[in-house]
Hints:
The complex is a heterodimer of chains A (323) and B (307).
Chain A: H1 2-30, H2 33-37, H3 44-54, H4 60-72, H5 86-121, H6 126-140, H7 143-157, E1 170-172, E2 175-177, H8 182-215, H9 218-225, H10 230-268, H11 273-283, H12 286-314, H13 316-322
Antiparallel strand pairs in A: 1-2
Helix pairs in contact in A: 1-4, 1-12, 5-6, 5-8, 5-10, 5-12, 6-8, 7-8, 7-10, 8-10, 9-10, 10-11, 10-12, 11-12, 12-13
Chain B: H1 21-29, H2 33-50, H3 52-55, E1 77-78, E2 84-85, H4 96-132, H5 134-148, H6 152-163, H7 167-193, H8 197-204, H9 209-220, H10 222-245, H11 257-268, H12 274-301
Helix pairs in contact in B: 2-4, 2-12, 4-5, 4-7, 4-10, 4-12, 5-7, 6-7, 7-10, 8-9, 10-11, 10-12, 11-12
Family (chain B): Belongs to the binding-protein-dependent transport system permease family.
Subcellular location (chain B): Cell membrane
Transmembrane segments (chain B): 34-56, 106-133, 153-177, 225-253, 273-294
Amino acid sequence: MSVYLLRRLIQAALVMLAMSVIVFIGVYAIGDPVEILISPDADQMERARAIAALGLDKPLWQQYLSFLGNALRGDLGRSFVFNEPALKLIGQRAPATLELAFAAMFLAILVGLPLGLYAGLRPDGVGAKAIMAGSILGFSLPTFWVGLMLIMVFAVQLGWLPSTGRGETVEILGLRWSFLTMDGLAHMAMPALNLALFKISLVIRLTRAGVRETMLMDFVKFARAKGLSPRRVIGVHVFKNILIPVVTVTGLELGSTIAFSVVTESVFAWPGMGKLIIDSINVLDRPVIVAYLMSIVLMFIIINLVVDLLYSVLDPRVRLESK
Amino acid sequence: MSATTAAPAPIPAKAPRVETPLQRFISEFAESNIALGALIVFLCIVLIAVFAPWIAPQNPYDLAQLDIMDGRMEPGTVGGAGFTYWLGTDDQGRDMLSGIMYGLRISLVVGAGSAIVAAIVGASLGMLAAYAGGRTDTIIMRLVDLQLSFPTILSALMILAFLGKGITNVVIALIVVEWAYYARTVRGTALVERRREYIEAAQCLALPTRRIIFRHLLPNCMPPLIVVATIQIARAIALEATLSFLGLGVPITEPSLGLLIANGYEYMLSGKYWISFYPGIALLITIVSINLVGDHLRDVLNPRLKK
């Protein structure tokens, strides 16, 4: 196990290193940093001095090494727009994105699991067909458009929910959260539902497939033959078995939910990391772009690592194959 | 079913009615009414997009035809130019129906174009990985794994952050995001197919490798490739719309459906829903019809589901 762990850790570090090279080359070598970092009013002398100060006269590999060294110390440069350390900005915005993503995942399970269970138990019923058609729609609907339509219906026409922003926040552990106030929850309802839509469809399909497979298993027949009530057979025997794949996939999807929150945050002006990166790309605030990409890549690598490790704990075959 | 679906087979003489693979494929596809309907809808959309300049009531990019006085008119109002704006107008006084028809062109060209290039790149690399094996295979598949472990929107954002905004860069981003799906699919199929007897026979005939790959291996890897391509075109159209909505895609002068929707965003809050609503419906119909066709193609082309 420890050999496997070590090997996966080394792999993760290598991927991180490779991504840092890609991001560095992408942001600093393809675009001309001089254009962006130095004010256009500067004269020739000032330009030369600034280039030397930024280390841009050195060969590329030296520049990369100093970038890497700074990155390891948690210094990814200062935002041109906010004039604050880029990583600090990301850190300030992260709680908003994280709570939105977790709320969406929670909604996905809360809505998707019962619907999938129903569709799996009565696959030929009208209700099941409607649920499955709905899930195809959920896969096909463009997220940003659904967001706009939600705003139109619930904020503009019905006036039930606020259309944009994060609402009132509560400070806990130095970070600001909005899921603990009623106003915050009202602000979060639409973005969370919007972000959850795709995942709800996914959970419905997974649950339905799982239920249909499990219902044919011998242990279900046995439980029935034993005379257990249908409620107990489904609630305990079937449910436990479909929960494993559903939970794993939902966990895996957390990363993509955070990435896709870019869209939802832009629609609802939710002040998270996603809104920050879009604004930064629009004004070419490169340090923030780099900081966002590096931190989200790191997060993905960690999520993948944790999922792999969980698999190897749950499923001994994975461990054997890697030897 | 061996997949010479692409090649139109010569029609056999009448006496023994032997179905060619293409005919069998068509009759199997037509079994599902939903898929057939979706295909017809999709073809209509393509026709509308192709013939937009001739059937649209107005050229939405010809400023001379626009009347700013007609801005933000409700669907069904008759404008100053004397014709009815069935789907309303946007803030520039542009007829939304015409805007959607022209927007469809851009969405379809970007979506289909990037999917085709990505298919060629991905299929070639997948084929190479399967046929060469060894280290080449490992390197290509590691790249595929790396690409697929990040969500599409993140990779696309990364590329647009590097290259900047613009339609060419969106196409590049879509290709980079999509190639891995094709590569993985083709490699998987090719690995199975290359162990078949007909490849062995071709090798025994000492045919050149290139000929074996392109004339023997590739045609038999087509069915899954076609299915992936269908689904990927829909995904590319959706992703392009998303990127354009975020303001990273097509320029304002040539709005795709995504940008049309984005344009209506600010008017949404004052209840002028139609600027965003109708382009979204057009996008939705396009994506759903492609997905339904792709879903059914998967069933028809999957040999494991054969009766």
